[in-house]
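Notes from the 1:1 (GR / supervisor)

We went over the backlog. Supervisor wanted to see one worked example end to end before approving the batch request, so GR pasted a single chain during the call. The sequence is below; no edits were made to it. Supervisor asked that the structure be written out right there so they could see what the output format looks like.
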Amino acid sequence: MPEMTDKGLSVLVFAAYHTLVSGEVVRKVVLNDGKGHQADKQGAEEMVAAGFLEAEGERGRLTDAGEEALSALLTTIRQARPYATR
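Structure output shown during the call:
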């Protein structure tokens, strides 16, 4: 995975959160909903620069590389579960 700050990772982590909660793979992320929810601008720019995200106005779409990075992050999160919950 390309080097990213925590701000860049936060965009990916938010997609992971929604994937875990919904049970569906997230491919689109809200960059700014106009109601106070917005991704960190620097983080979104890092995701674009890394080739993980294509910005489409107020939304972004994970690229194939972004989906692979999301999958790897989800695997890591699931492997980090406390033993008692496995």
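Supervisor's comment: The longest helix spans residues 6-22.
Batch request approved.
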